[in-house]
Design goal:
By secondary structure, the chain is an alpha/beta fold. The chain is 33% helix and 22% strand. The longest helix has 18 residues, at 592-609.
């Protein structure tokens, strides 16, 4: 085959027959992707860069910036510099000296981040990458984790397998960015629909329902983030290996097959040989071997007592246990050594969603269900309400979700002959609907009457009163008659708080200094007959005692009837007369004894309403007499609080909600202990938003985790009266409340909201 250039030499790698202990008639092949000029990701770099040049996303001579600690960096360096582009590689201290030398010799500028941030080394690298993109005009980022050209690059690999072997029964591959195995298997399945796809991951990687352990030593597979290129619907089985097991397998690959590979190739080899030994005669198995071993001479292959820690990890007697066979576990169970779980590609258990919230969280929940080996189905009255829904690949069933009979009929039709794991929702307005559906199906969930008490704040108050839980004094008003309202205000006292009993969050909650204001607001609320979802309102208003004191919330999770406290959030709210959250700190800057008092009050409150399972968010005020319950939300906290809990503790509460709904194992143990804080962006005065400046500068402040602007120019804005008035937020992490506060103050001080008064 004639090659026109160096990059034309990418691909065309051999599939070699391995000598393994397997039944007669079983054939085992290694697809030696390490025989590319540098490694397997040469394919991705060529595909992505050539496509970017073709579409104009990358101009002639424009800079390329990529985050990688291994073979993707080498591929981008190879193709990018060959085509005349300046290449900037962002990496971390785990990069091996051989790769570093290759990158610099090829002419790259290498940027090594100094420390992990919120989600490990990957997030630290991505933050540095964002800085480079901001200061390099015309820079192109290949985005290996989300660029669809990544998996597309492996269609050629699938073509080569079919051309060389004719057929494949089992395909085994490592998973990092998701491109190689997903791209290859998707192309193969189009022609060979019965191929079994087996993924290989490492212990401590989040990719397949495991907690993140950023200290893992393996390179080339595993991740601390969720790449968009992983299609979880393609897998039939996944294996996890510990560092010691992977390194041992890599040395076995060299010793037994004379293939000097990296730990990714070794991990694939260990799983491949295990499957081959148990395969039926006539089975043909292929393992994708991505990388050569030269990067690992000082770690995996190090020998002798003088090799230090790297040698201890690499020589023949590993420090940890090396299993000779994997343990089968339920998908979602936490593993510490070689384990595997079956993930049926066909006929997966259904997870039914009754509507969703309209923010990104709802769509993330659908993707999370797929990642947890479930098949999500969304029941909705109006699919157009969710503009991101088509990108999730979720099955959608349109029905009247507020009609219990119509919803039940639609669920019965969809679930006929299928296994239903559970029913859930990310919308507070559909908690009762979800509980009733789960009870009818016999799947995990809260008692419907408990959800009714949580949704109807008047019923919440009654239940807490009967249980003796500390709360404000209150009166329920159902009649707009001025005398009845006046009597309720007199019974509670002034100042008071007037609120609807069935809304979400702080919507329409008003502090009233005098009786006339309270009466006017109560009449206004009683005139509302339907909420924003078109549901009939309960026709009642709460008049409550106003309690002085700082505000907190307890983030709770029900497990088998026991309410566990994930942590306490310290909250700041807008000036009276409204109660809009303007910032949070997690965990709160309070001592352990006070945190436990708040958590215990929240437990009493949840017990009083009958809450049993899943996430709950209990709002409290700390009065002179102790914590008092302001509100119970029988769902995940809003106000981006889960986005603080994740970097502070490593706990993904949205994932835990999906697990609880489906009856999967939970993981509510913190991996680390940091502080995380948030400030919402709000308009300083009424008017029209003309623009938002300083976002890039704020993103570059050390400690900033994320800056999001939701306000668009031309929008009418005002100082916050409800959560809908917020225009974005800044999230920061640090080792202390003072660190977080300083970072938030600096970052928000750089952001200028232009408001033009009408």
């Amino acid at each position: 085959m004639r090659q026109e250039s160096v990059i034309d030499g990418i691909g065309h790698t051999p599939a070699v027959r391995l000598r393994v202990d397997a039944p007669d008639g079983v054939e085992v092949f290694a697809k030696l992707e390490m025989q590319n000029l540098f490694a397997m990701k040469d394919r991705v770099a060529r595909q992505v860069i050539l496509e970017a040049r073709r579409t104009g996303a990358l101009a002639e001579g424009g800079p390329i910036v990529e985050s990688s600690s291994g073979t993707m960096a080498l591929g981008v360096a190879l193709v990018g510099t060959y085509l005349g582009h300046p290449v900037h590689i962002v990496t971390d201290p785990r990069i091996d000296p051989i790769t570093l030398a290759k990158l610099r010799t090829l002419g790259c500028e290498v940027h090594v981040v100094a420390a992990m941030t919120g989600q490990g080394w990957q997030s630290a690298r991505l933050e540095r990458l964002a800085e480079l993109m901001a200061c390099l005009p015309g820079a192109f980022w290949p985005r290996q984790y989300s660029n669809p050209q990544n998996p597309a690059a492996y269609r050629g690999l699938a073509d080569e397998l079919v051309a060389d072997l004719g057929s494949v029964d089992v395909l085994v591959g490592a998973v990092g960015s998701g491109g190689s195995l997903c791209g290859t298997s998707k192309a193969l399945l189009e022609r060979l629909p019965d191929v079994s796809v087996v993924g290989v991951d490492c212990v401590g990687s989040v990719l397949f329902a495991q907690p993140d352990r950023p200290t893992r030593k393996q390179g080339g597979l595993g991740n601390s983030l969720f790449p968009e290129n992983i299609d979880y619907r393609l897998f039939d089985e996944v294996h996890w290996l510990s560092d010691d097991e992977a390194f041992d397998a890599t040395r076995r690959l060299a010793r037994e097959q004379k293939i000097f590979g990296g730990n990714t190739s070794g991990s694939v080899y260990r799983v491949l040989t295990h499957l081959a030994a148990r395969a039926e005669p006539g089975t043909r198995l292929v393992g994708i071997m991505p990388d050569r071993g030269d990067r690992y001479v000082d770690s995996v292959y190090a020998e002798g007592d003088g090799a230090g820690e790297a040698g201890a990890a690499g020589r023949g007697a590993p420090r940890g246990v090396v299993a000779e066979a994997p343990e089968e576990v339920e998908y979602g169970a936490t593993v510490s050594g070689w384990s595997f779980a079956r993930i049926p590609r066909r006929d997966r258990r259904l997870l039914l969603f009754v509507e969703s919230n309209t923010t990104g969280t709802g769509m993330i929940a659908l993707r999370t269900a797929v990642r947890l080996a479930l098949e999500p189905v969304l029941f909705t009255k109006d699919a157009a309400r969710y503009p991101e829904l088509p990108d999730t690949g979720c099955r959608v069933v349109v029905c009247d979700t507020d009609d219990e009979a119509a919803l039940a009929e639609a669920i019965a039709r969809v679930s006929a002959g299928r296994r239903v794991a559970g029913v859930t929702t990310t919308s507070e307005f559909y908690l009762e609907h979800t509980a009733r559906a789960a009870a009818a199906l016999g799947t995990p969930g809260n008692p419907p009457e408990a959800m009714t008490r949580c949704r109807n704040k008047a019923l919440t108050r009654t239940a807490l009163h009967e249980a003796g839980v500390t709360q404000p004094g209150f009166a329920v008003v159902t009649d707009p008659d001025p005398e009845r309202i006046a009597a309720a205000v007199a019974a509670v006292g002034l100042p008071c708080v007037v609120k609807p009993v069935g809304e979400s969050g702080s919507q329409s909650v008003l502090w009233c200094e005098d009786a006339a204001t309270a009466a006017a607001h109560a009449v206004e609320l009683l005139a509302v007959t339907h909420n924003v979802r078109g549901q009939r309102t309960p026709g009642a208003v709460l008049v409550e005692q106003y309690l002085e004191g700082p505000e907190f919330s307890a983030e709770m999770f029900g497990v088998d009837g026991e309410a566990r406290c994930v942590g306490v959030t310290q909250r700041t709210v807008s000036p009276l007369p409204h109660f809009v959250e303007t910032g949070h700190l997690f965990p709160a800057d309070i001592d352990d004894a006070l945190a436990e008092r708040i958590a215990d009050t929240a437990r009493q409150a949840l017990k009083a309403v009958g809450f049993e399972r899943g996430p709950a968010h209990v709002e409290l005020r700390l009065t002179a007499d102790g914590p008092a319950v302001i509100e119970i939300n029988g769902r995940l906290a809003g106000g981006m609080i889960p986005e603080l809990i994740r970097p502070a503790t490593g706990i993904d509460l949205l994932e835990q909600q999906i697990r609880a709904a489906a009856g999967l194992p939970l993981n509510l143990s913190a991996d680390h202990a940091r502080r995380a804080g948030l400030r919402f962006l709000t308009a300083p005065r009424p008017g029209r938003l003309t623009g938002v400046d300083g976002v890039r500068q704020a993103e570059r402040v050390p400690g900033v985790e994320r800056v999001l602007v939701s306000g668009t120019p031309g929008r009418e804005v005002r100082p916050p009266r409800s959560a809908y008035d917020r225009l974005g937020h800044v999230i920061a992490v640090g080792s202390s409340p003072q660190d977080v506060g300083r970072v938030l103050a600096e970052a928000t001080g750089l952001i200028e909201l232009g408001v033009e008064q009408d």
